[in-house]
Amino acid sequence: MQTTIVKWGNSQGVRHPKFLLDSVNLRDGDIVEVIAENDSIIIRKPQDKRMHKTIQERFKDFGGAYGFGEIDWGKPVGKEIW
After folding, report:
1. Of 52, 53, 71, 72, residue with least CA distance to 62
2. Domain for residue 79, yes or no?
3. Residue 1 CA from chain centroid, whole number
4. Is 57 inside any structural domain?
5. pTM value?
6. Are 24 and 35 in contact (CB under 8 A)?
7. In this structure, is residue 68 part of a structural domain?
């Protein structure tokens, strides 16, 4: 099946026919996961039903070193309160 990308406000969108959504058991208001991969856009049901990930989940694959400490941003240049 082919369809057209259409302007939708400041974005673009693709409308999916009801029979297609019914075939994968998706309904109006369902949360989906959208992934860009290998010149494709994949829309699927999320494996985790939660809308937001925890901080631990977001950084589980982070391989860099974590550095912490204070940062000197310099002297105030406007109406900042320090």
Report:
1. 53
2. no
3. 26
4. yes
5. 0.52
6. no
7. no
Q: Which among 11, 51, 54 has a CA at the least distance from the CA of 31?
A: 51
Task: Round to whole Å and give the CA distance between 61 and 66.
Answer: 13
For the stretch 1-45, pLDDT in tens is 888 999 999 999 999 999 999 999 999 988 888 999 999 999 998
Whether residue 47 lies inside any domain: the answer is yes
DSSP string, 15-52: ---HHHHHHTT--TT---EEEEETTEEEEE--SS--SS
pLDDT greater than 90 at residue 65: no
Number of domains in the chain: 1
Question: What range does the domain containing 46 cover?
Answer: 27-61
